[in-house]
UniProtKB/TrEMBL annotation:
Residues annotated as domain Tryptophan synthase beta chain-like PALP: 93-422
Entry-linked PROSITE patterns: DEHYDRATASE_SER_THR
InterPro entries: Ser/Thr_deHydtase_PyrdxlP-BS (IPR000634), Thr_synth_N (IPR029144), Thr_synth_N_sf (IPR037158), Thr_synthase-like (IPR004450), TrpB-like_PALP (IPR001926), TrpB-like_PALP_sf (IPR036052)
EC number: 4.2.3.1
Modification N6-(pyridoxal phosphate)lysine occurs at: K112
Biochemical pathway: Amino-acid biosynthesis; L-threonine biosynthesis; L-threonine from L-aspartate: step 5/5
All copies of domain Threonine synthase N-terminal, residue ranges: 2-79
Name of the featured protein: Threonine synthase
Catalysis: reaction(s): O-phospho-L-homoserine + H2O = L-threonine + phosphate
GO BP annotations, alphabetical order: threonine biosynthetic process
Alphabetized UniProt keyword annotations: Amino-acid biosynthesis, Lyase, Pyridoxal phosphate, Threonine biosynthesis
Length: 496
């Protein structure tokens, strides 16, 4: 299986090359040249396997330049003993037709662990194949969850170095504590005076700066990415949607071939794109429901075909989705345009020049066939946390609550009673202040761990070990730079 760049479809890469480099030289994203197909018998077989076996099987279709033994080592290294239990994910029922797919049972309590426990194995295996001996310098832009999961995955991994940039005023206190207390001799964390889009744009610019890449190469190093622009981040996310379908099958919640809907809270469009790719592989999926917070650029796009980032940026209680430039949308555009790279280049040029673009009618029609969308503000998010807890005794984090609300609005609006998997993306204790407020509990003026303990006391939910262990920890990293200073920070840190 080879991969093509969304901005130059003649540029091909093996899986190992796509993963080691992270992004194509001209700024395009790598996409598989075709989608392997899952038959119904295959889904049935997969439903009898463990998560690790399912992951090995599905990823084997994409990572064809990895040996069976390499794949098994990567997948078991990522998932065996690293998650709360060997099922890795959990499905919790929410009413008659919905299930929350809990993806946050890994070490950093967010869905990003599902891919970022695996990426270090995939990346070091890939590097040995295609760029042996080079140190991989991984630059990460985060709005809260990717940063910590990437740091945890890559800490002290030989041959790698990592610099993480996060919006200093745009993540939850727990997310900040998780990142700034990170251990590991190969990592550094820097806050920026700006938002996630500023960090992501600066990092992407660095990845495509050929002069800088040359200087880095002279010192035996190369850049890569641990964001979902890297194929090695996205492929593992496809697995959990297929696995969720298999779990529903094994639990006899659905019959083989029954379509499901998938609803995903998303900002950078990676998590929902993985569900779309699962559908392209033949997973029976009816609608993909895209859930956004007040930064509703994706909702408007799916409803109208106009992508317009020229709008106020909102700092919300679901900060990991505070994004106006959704990187992975580019991969969807490539698919909707039938792999026409010129079309993608034109849309992306318009996005960088004007901050907006409009889909041609045939692409919009295909988009709306596949996707539905909705959004909600912080007030509705809080109300959804409260209502979900009161009605189902289920405590969800603000990002998951956005998806629950959007799904419920969708179901009420359309009458669609198809069984729906809602991606539950983070543990609520990462956002204790907002969750307590939503429950109507006093939260003002309390320190972070007072909030955590109060939330545990009033809900009976367990504080995850990965967060409890941060109590009393002193931050290691306090660097902050302007958004314009990210390049200089990288140059200085790397001694270029
Ligand atoms: N929500 C993300 C933003 C980056 O997304 P990614 O999937 O491209 O890594 C975060 O938590 O940082």
């Amino acid at each position: 299986m080879n991969y093509n760049s969304t901005r130059d479809s003649h540029r091909t890469a093996s899986a190992a090359e796509a993963i080691a480099t992270g992004i194509s030289r001209e700024g395009g994203l790598f996409v598989p040249e075709r989608f392997p197909q899952l038959t119904q018998e295959r889904l049935l077989q997969l439903s009898k396997l463990s998560y690790i076996e399912r992951a090995k099987d599905i990823l084997g279709e994409y990572l064809t330049d990895f040996t069976e033994e390499e794949l098994y080592r990567c997948v078991s290294g990522a998932y065996a003993g690293k998650f709360d239990d060997e099922s890795v994910t959990n499905l919790a029922r929410l009413g008659d037709n919905a299930y929350l797919l809990e993806l946050w049972h890994g070490p950093t309590c967010a869905f990003k662990d599902m891919a970022l426990q695996l990426l270090p194995h995939l990346l070091t295996t890939s590097a040995k194949k295609v760029v042996d001996g080079k140190e991989i310098v991984i630059l990460v832009a985060t709005s809260g969850d990717t940063g910590k999961a990437a740091l945890e995955g890559f800490k002290d991994i030989p041959g790698t170095r990592m610099l993480v940039f996060y919006p200093e005023q745009g993540v939850s206190p727990m997310q900040k504590l998780q990142m700034t207390t990170q251990e590991g001799g190969n990592v550094a964390v820097c806050g920026i005076r700006g938002n996630f889009d500023d960090a992501q744009t600066a990092v992407k610019r660095i990845f495509t700066d050929q002069a800088l890449a040359g200087r880095l190469e002279q010192s035996g190093r190369m850049f890569s990415s641990a964001n979902s622009i890297n194929w090695g981040r996205l492929a593992p996310q496809i697995v959990y949607y297929i696995s969720a379908y298999c779990d529903l099958l094994a639990d006899e919640e659905i019959a083989l071939g029954d379509p499901i809907n998938i609803c995903v809270p998303t900002g950078n469009f990676g998590n929902i794109l993985a569900a779309y790719y699962a559908k392209r592989m033949g997973l029976p999926v009816a609608k993909l429901i895209c859930a956004s917070n007040e930064n509703n650029v994706l909702t408007e796009f799916i409803e109208t075909g106009v992508y317009n980032r020229n709008r106020p940026f909102h700092t919300t209680i679901s900060p990991s989705m505070d994004i106006l430039i959704s990187s992975n949308l580019e991969r969807l555009l490539y698919a909707l345009a039938d792999n026409d790279d010129a079309q993608v280049r034109a849309l992306m040029d318009s996005l960088s020049a004007e901050g907006s673009y409009t889909l041609p009618a045939p692409m919009l029609e295909r988009l709306r066939d596949e996707f539905a969308a909705g959004c909600c503000d912080d007030g509705a998010t809080r109300a959804a946390i409260r209502a979900t807890f009161d009605t189902y005794s289920y405590l969800c984090d603000p990002h998951t609550a956005v998806a629950v609300k959007v799904y419920q609005d969708y179901a009420a609006r359309t009458g669609d009673a198809t069984k729906t998997v809602i991606a539950s993306t983070a543990n609520p204790f990462k956002f204790s202040h907002s969750v307590l407020e939503a429950l109507g509990e006093p939260a003002e003026g309390l320190a972070e761990f007072e909030l955590v303990e109060r939330l545990a006391a009033c809900t009976g939910c367990e504080i995850p070990a990965g967060l409890a262990s941060l109590k009393g920890r002193v931050p290691r990293f306090s660097d902050v730079c302007d958004r314009e200073g990210i390049l200089d920070y990288v140059v200085e840190q790397l001694g270029l």
